[in-house]
Amino acid sequence: xxxxxxxxxxxxxxxxxxxxxxxxxxxxxxxxxxxxxxxxxxxxxxxxxxxxxxxxxxxxxxxxxxxxxxxxxxxxxxxxxxxxxxxxxxxxxxxxxxxxxxxxxxxxxxxxxxxxxxxxxxxxxxxxxxxxxxxxxxxxxxxxxxxxxxxxxxxxxxxxxxxxxxxxxxxxxxxxxxxxxxxxxxxxxxxxxxxxxxxxxxxxxxxxxxxxxxxxxxxxxxxxxxxxxxxxxxxxxxxxxxxxxxxxxxxxxxxxxxxxxxxxxxxxxxxxxxxxxxxxxxxxxxxxxxxxxxxxxxxxxxxxxxxxxxxxxxxxxxxxxxxxxxxxxxxxxxxxxxxxxxxxxxxxxxxxxxxxxxxxxx
Length: 362
Ligand code: SF4
Hints:
alpha/beta; 10 strands
C-alpha cells in the first residue's frame, strides 16, 4: 500500500525507489507482468525515470484480481449511487388519541432522533443530493430545526413535503430564503382553497412543487380550475385509490392505444421498462418507527435497526421486488405492449387494471 500510495503521489511523477526485497513482492510482480510498470536498477541510470500512472487502469486491474463473485462485488462497490430519493417520515397521527373538537392538531408519533441520526450518518457520503422530510406535521417534530441543519451541514439539500390542510403554518416561509431548502406542497382537500392561494402567492417566484391528490371527478375539476387560473410550472397529479373509487381510477389510468402512443417512446425507455420500474426505482422511505419501505408506501423491506441502507439497496437490486416490479401481472403478462406501456403505478398495487385495459394487444 505504501508503495502504491507513493507512486500515486504526483510529487514522485510515477517513479519511486524501492528495496531489492520489495521487487520480489507478489503485488509488485503482478503490476510489472501486466505492463503497468517496470523495475529498473537505479545504478544503471543517472536520470530519474518519469511514468504517469493511470488511475483507471490500476482500478480495473484490482477488479480483475478479485477472486469472488465479480458482479456481486461490482454491485456493492458503488451501490450508494442507486439511492435516488430518500424520505424520512418525521411524524404521523397517533391513532390511539381521539381528536376532540378542541384539538387543533391530533397527537403525533414522532420519529426518534436516534433513528434520524443513524440514517443520516449512513448516507453522509452517498451521492444523493437531497433528503425529503415528510409527515403529518413536520414542524411539530421536536428536533425539526436540528435535523434540517444536520442535513444542510452534510452539503445536501432538504425537501420539505407539507400537506396544505387547515392547520398549515405560514411562518415556515422564513426558511425559503435558503436555496438548499425546497418545498413540495401536497393538496388533497379542495373544499377551501384559501390556504392554497396563500401558499401560491408567497411562493410564486420560487421553484417549488405542487402535488395534487385526487380521488374523484370533483377533485379533478378543482385541479383543472387551479391549473387554468394559476401559473404552476412544477406539479404532479396523483390519483389516489380509496377502495370506493375504482371506476374513477380505472377511467383515469386504464390506457388506450392513443394514450400510449401519444408521445414518442425512446428505445432507452423500452429497454429500461424491461429491467426496472421507473416509478419506484431508487426510492426508500423510512417510517416513524424505523421500518423501511421501497417505492410503494406499503412495501416494507425491513427495519433500520437490523438492515442498513446499503443492504436495502442491495436487496432491492438483487430481488425482483418493488424497484423492479414489471408489467407481469394479469393480462399485462401476455400483452405485446408491456414494455411500451408506462411502468406499474402504486394504484396498480391494489387494483389490477389489465382486465379493463382498452389497449391490450395479444
Ligand atoms: S394490458 Fe397491455 S396495454 Fe394494457 S396496461 Fe397491460 S401492458 Fe399496458
